[in-house]
Amino acid sequence: MSAQEVAGMANNPYLPMSMEILRIEDETADRTLKTLDLRWIHEEQAAAFSYHTGQFCELSVLGVGEAPFGIATSPVEEGFIRFTINRAGVVTQKLHSLKAGDVIGMRGPLGNWYPTELMRGKDIVIIGGGFAFTTLRSLIYTLLEGGERDAYGKITVVYGTRAPGLMLYRPDLTAWQDRSDIDMHQTIDREAPNWPHHVGFVPTVVEEVAPSSDNSIAVIAGPPVMIRFTLPVMTKLGFAKEQIYTSLENRMKCGIGKCGRCNVGNKYVCLDGPVFSLAELDELPPEY
Amino acid sequence: MKQWLLPKSSLPKLADTIRQTHRLYAPVRLPDQVAFGEIGEGDPFTLDYANARTSVKTLFFPQAETMLRYERSLDRYNDISATPVDSVPTVVLGMRPCDARGLELLDRVFGQGQYHDPYYLARRQATVVVALACAAPRQTCFCHAVGGDPYSGDGGDVLLSESDEAYVAVAQTTKGQEWLASLGLSEADAGHLATAETIAEAAHEKLVKMAPAAGLEDKLTALFESEVWGEIAEKCIACGTCTYLCPGCHCFNIQDRVLANGGIRLRSWDGCMYEGFTVHTSGHNPRPDQGARWRQRVLHKFAYLPENVGMYGCVGCGRCITYCPVRLDIREVIARLRIETAAQLQGEQ
Hints:
The complex is a heterodimer of chains A (288) and B (349).
Chain A lengths: L2 H5 L9 E10 L6 E8 L2 H6 L7 E6 L3 E6 L10 E6 L3 H7 L6 E8 L5 H4 L3 E7 L4 H12 L9 E7 L8 H9 L4 E6 L9 E2 L2 H8 L6 E6 L2 H13 L7 E4 L15 E2 L2 E2 L6 E3 H5 L6
Parallel strand pairs in A: 7-8, 7-11, 8-9, 9-10, 11-12
Antiparallel strand pairs in A: 1-2, 1-6, 2-5, 3-4, 3-6, 12-15, 13-14
Helix pairs in contact in A: 7-8
Chain B lengths: L2 E5 L3 H11 L1 E7 L4 E5 L25 E10 L2 E2 L3 E2 L7 E6 L1 H15 L6 H8 L1 E6 L25 E6 L2 E6 L2 H8 L4 E2 L2 H17 L21 H6 L7 H5 L6 E8 L2 E8 L20 H20 L9 H5 L6 H19 L1
Parallel strand pairs in B: 2-7, 7-8, 8-9
Antiparallel strand pairs in B: 1-10, 1-11, 2-3, 4-5, 4-6, 4-13, 9-10, 12-13
Helix pairs in contact in B: 2-3
């Protein structure tokens, strides 16, 4: 590769695209999460952008900084890209204060993705907790609306939050609840008025629902404590480590495997992940 | 491969010749240290030195550099633009083989795989690296234990070797070959070659005895849960000097800086010795104590990089030994780990 080639803007992996905020709204009742729908300002960048379900992007507010977020839209949803952002640090604080029409930066898509190829011909179990549901929405949408629903077997979803108002993407959840080609289970930690779904922690509900491990792939994303108590249930249901996938988070900066901070053993979460099977994680030290 | 003769007395003239076509960096003697600096007309420089305090990586991967710029107009941000890469034709004269091997490592980290770092690679590609073999290795030098050699040409385009009042210059790459051929030097005679050979032999005899690290890379990860890391880190004050002076360390941070009419996104060196390097926004830190950070430093250099890019992240320059304020010595750490891995293996049997 010549200096001229690497110097080209198109090859500069640090250079964000300019994105316009189409819509920014509170996603949860406690207002700690906002959903942003973004549109490319430059047509050619929109045309060149393609991604897989489970990948992430670095969003940047100039003058403040960058942070990584999982993509909540599915590649089959065209014309925009969605992120749901938990207000936690300086970048997310600033992102929460923006309005429709504001312009932010975006780098990506980055990282690997959920094994949708491997899921073909198999039953799929998707287990989510709290605001980790973003890329799981992308996955469910892809499986249902990708025009190949028949390519996959039974789809079972268990999604839990502390309270009804903390559920992400409620219109989607309602629509999925009514469909016959997806077995949707929503749960909250404690009883709440007018709540028609499950009550109880995610691991308990998974045990009740008892999805079959036979010819099945599971994806689990959520708070560490939820994952810790769900895994024994999965083992009881007969899921092997090779059948269970999860998405990791670690502090990141570059997103391209250069800056050296998000590694777990010799793997970079940003480059070799964020999606790992439990079998893969078993080979790595507990450094996340 | 042709072996050219470069008389030491002709160095100032050589610098003038180089400067006609290239930007020139060479070691400069400062009151308290030797540092690589840009050489202008008549500026003094020296090749008679042990090593520069700061690794020469600084010239290719600066401690802070602007990657992107943006302008601000009204309340909307204009498009961000990348800082033009630095591809000024450059010669770096007289870096030690350990530093040149450090560049070899950075070449792999920044140039291999799916993504390439345009800022580093542009400088690297525009530069002729003239390495200077070590006729007098120091007490803290251990390049020979980590895959290097005081006469290694790895990472360099040209290697200079001492031969009394001259250097013997040998190209290591096509780039170096073309550059050397353009200088109008004469070929080295048998006498100078023999002298260079004798000096090289003497240099190798001066090397401090140390067992090669080879083999350690496969055994270290088994020590992940060991208590040895906490013991090693006990006196570490997390100053990060070791990572900043290291020719192989390449971890960085990316930050925004607001200026009057816009701003810049810059990258700056960062290091695994700092708590903030890996702490999550939630407060959770996958490396919660200095032992975990030392483990990362050692495993990154001696296990992960060998597996990922095929060489150690340590080139044996000894800077981290010389400048550590609490006298932590990576050679002692390696020796300790060798004992620990042996004990571990024995325990398993």
